[in-house]
Amino acid sequence: MQRTLTTMMLIGAMGGGIVSAEETTESKDLFVHPFFAFCMDTHDSMKRDLREQAALLKELGYDGAGHLWLDQVAERIETLDEAGLKLFKISMYVDISAEQPFDTRLENIMPLLKDRGVMLALLMRGMPPSDPAGDPKAVVIIRRIADMARDAGVTVALYPHFRDWLERVEDGVRLAKLVDRPNVGVMFNLCHWLAVDEEKNLDALLDLAMPHLVGVSIHGADRAAEVQAGTGNWIQPLDSGSFDVVAFLNAFRQRGYRGPVGLQCWGIQGDARDHLTRSMAAWRKMSQALCAVSSAEK
User: Fold this and answer.
1) pLDDT at residue 108 above 70?
2) Is residue 144 left, alpha or beta, with left meaning phi > 0 and alpha meaning psi from -120 to 50?
3) How much is the mean pLDDT over the chain?
């Protein structure tokens, strides 16, 4: 992405070093997005259980967590509630080629999610990536899930995922329009976008996606060309990598996005405390930089 004047202002605003605990307390009102972590448990060398995960996220200042698949949903909710945190997202696979395309436990789990403002993120597979021939069956399946989710106040987030049938943000937008349900939208995932697109396309893609956008996920990363060439690191702590995450977030801010932001932690090795601590420090600096630019623009 080109460095505009706004981007240079963001860099300047972030030049003050790590934010102290005192500064964080005083400027908490500057955090315009709820910030949650997900996939933080998949490669954690400490193998924390759900209660330990919630305690760690609370200690470090996260607003909540995402959850993979439909196992232990009740326990995830209970442990987050105890810590005063929110369940933001549950991820679930949908196979549009299967006779039973999704986990049948979903219907019984919906009452647990009622009025909690949870996103149900659908990772959709079963045909070659982006093949529109899968649209008719997918629309029927998504509508079925959306109607099931409606009474619980659950938002269905179409989740583009590298090498899945639903691979690109454009696929999600196309499907959201076809499904035509008010509780169906699209999640923009930095890692999966970097794997399939060119950075120069971001602005046009965001203009297309914004009317349907319900969530965004970020992490540290190298540039898209490096990731696609296999020479760059893909998912990293938020303070790492050559990709300009602040400018990326600013593009969403400029278009009025004020929804949740998730921290993608898949594949990050070692003790989760280490990378979650680093990423929270980076998030606080980024948030303050973006708020400084926003104030300067008023």
Assistant:
1) yes
2) alpha
3) 91
- HSE-CB of 130 using CA atoms within 13 angstroms: 9
SS3 155: strand
277 and 60 Cβ atoms separated by less than 8 Å: yes
Q: What is the DSSP string of 154-171?
A: PEEEE---TTSSS-SHHH
Q: Please, are residues 263 and 38 in contact by the beta-carbon 8 Å criterion?
A: yes
pLDDT, residue 2, reads 39
In CATH, which of 1.10.357.120, 3.20.20.150, 1.10.287.3510, 3.40.50.360 is domain 30-297?
Answer: 3.20.20.150
What are the extents of the domains in the chain? Answer: 30-297
pLDDT, tens digit, for every residue of 185-242? 999 999 999 999 999 999 999 999 999 999 999 999 999 999 999 999 999 999 999 9
**Which residue type occupies 183?**
N
Structure tokens at 198: 């060119």
Determine which helix (DSSP H) or strand (DSSP E) holds 75, and give its type and residue range.
helix 73-83
- Which residue type occupies 48? R
